[in-house]
Amino acid sequence: MALLSGSRHALEWHLADEVLAQRALSADRYEREVPFAAVLDDGLQLVGRMDLVFREGDELVVVDFKTDAVATAAEADSAAAAHSGQAAA
Question: Which long-range contacts (CB under 8 A, 24 or more apart) does 30-37 make?
């Protein structure tokens, strides 16, 4: 994994949540667009990229932004349900 190049301001600008931005910027190191591959117990293979990963204490924080356009609570619930399998993995 390569350490993110570019300014800290650029990362802050891209993160919608300022608290999350501060958490990432407070970490000793953060990574963007981190590739991953995994095989679940049922044999399902997952391949993708995590938008942001950083360490807080003994834990890794993984962020995967979604860009669904939603106008209502019902649309937000539907989008969340559509991504629930990915989040559970």
Answer: 30/4, 30/54, 31/1, 31/2, 31/3, 31/4, 32/4, 34/1
Q: Residue 16: is its pLDDT beyond 70?
A: no
Which class does domain 8-88 fall in?
Answer: alpha beta
What's the rounded Cα separation, in Å, for the pair 33 and 6? Answer: 14
Looking at the chain, the whole-number percentage of residues with pLDDT higher than 90 is: 28
Q: Which residue has the tokens 């995967």?
A: 64
Q: What does pTM read for this prediction?
A: 0.61
| Beta-strand runs (E) in 1-89 | 30-39, 45-56, 59-63
Q: Where are the domains of the chain?
A: 8-88
Closest CA to 68 of 81, 54, 53, 50: 81
Lowest-confidence pick of 27-31, 39-43, 62-66: 62-66
Residue type, 34: V
